[in-house]
Amino acid sequence: MENIDKSKPVLVTGATGYVAGWIVKKLLDEGLIVHAAVRNPDNKSKIGHLERLAVDSPGSIRFFKADLLDEGSYAEAMENCELVYHTASPFTLDVKDPQKELIDPALKGTRNVLNQATKTPSVKRVVVTSSCAAIYTDASDVHQTPNGILTEEIWNTTASLEYQPYSYSKTLAEKEAWKIAESQNQWDLVTLNPCLVLGPATNPKTATSESFTILKQLGDGTLKMGVPNLGIGVVDVRDLAQAHFNAGFLPEANGRNIICAHSSSMLEMAKILHLKYGDKYKVPSSALPKWLLMLIGPLVNKSITRKFIRNNVNITWKADNSKGRKELNMSYRPLQETLHESFQDMIDHQLI
Length: 352
Known about the structure:
Number of strands: 10
Largest sheet: 7 strands, parallel
Keywords: Oxidoreductase
Shape: globular
Pfam family, one: Epimerase
Protein name: NAD-dependent epimerase/dehydratase family protein
Radius of gyration: 20 Å
Structural class: alpha/beta
CATH topology: Rossmann fold
CATH class: Alpha Beta
GO molecular function, one term: oxidoreductase activity, acting on the CH-OH group of donors, NAD or NADP as acceptor
Domain NAD-dependent epimerase/dehydratase: 10-244
C-alpha cells in the first residue's frame, strides 16, 4: 500500500468507546484531523472528553452522527478519508438477547462500514478492531492448537449463539470483514486481535467495558474470598492505540495481528494488585478452588456456567505476539504498570 496522506481526515467509528478514546487521542497528538462517528453528536456527556483532548492537541476533531445498524449512515463521516478505523462493536458479557445485542451490531455494523468504504473512492485502508475472541473461546482451546499457543492462523470454532456469544459475534464480524475485503481491490484490510484490554480510560465516568467490571470486582470485595484462576492475556489500552496507529500508517502492515502484551491469569493480576492495594482494599491474593466455583459460580453469575469453569479455570493461556512486534513495531509496557494505573484511575474517580 502507498502511504496514507496525513493531511486527510481519519475516520474512527464508535469514537466514544474505551479503546477508541485512546486512538482518537493518539491521532490528535499526531496533528491529524479526526472524523469521529458517534450515535449522538449532541450528547456532551459522551463526547466532552474527546473535545477536551482536541483542545490540548495539535489535531482537530469533527463529530458525525452514525449508527451501526443504519445503512449508509457513515457516508458523510467517511468522505475524503484515506484511512478508516472501525472500532465500534459492543463488548458485554451480560446479555438477554445475544442476537440483538451482540451479533447484529457486530456483523451488520462491519458490513455497513466496510461496504461504505468501497463506495468512498478516497479510502485506501481499513483497520478493524477484532479480538482474540475471534481466535479462541476458552483457555482449553489453546491446548488444542498445534503448539499449545494461539496464532493468527487460528479461528474460533467453539463459540455459538448459546455459548460465549460475544466471542461468536467477534468471529462472525471479522470473517465478514475479510470476505468484503477480498471482494474488492480499492482498499486493504488490517485487523487487530487484542486480548483483555486494561489501562486508564479517557472518560472514566462514562466508561463501559467488561475490563472495568473485572477490576472493580477485584477491588470492591466481590471476590474477597478468592479469585477464579482464569487464564487470560492482557494488553494496555495505550499500547493498543499505538498498535492501531501503526496498523493504519505503516505500509507493510497486513492481515491479522494478535495484540497481547502478557499471557497471564486472573490470579496473577490479583496478586500484583494485592501487593500494592491489599491493605486498603479487599483485593484477593488466592484462588478459589475449582470445585467451589463449580458449586457457586452459576448461582453468582449466569454466564459463569460449569462448562465455562471447566474450560477456563486453572488452565494456562498463551498467545504468540511476534507478528505484531515485528510488523507493527510493537513493544509493551509491564503488566504491573498497566494494573496499577488502571486501578488507581478507578480509585481516583471513585469507581472503587
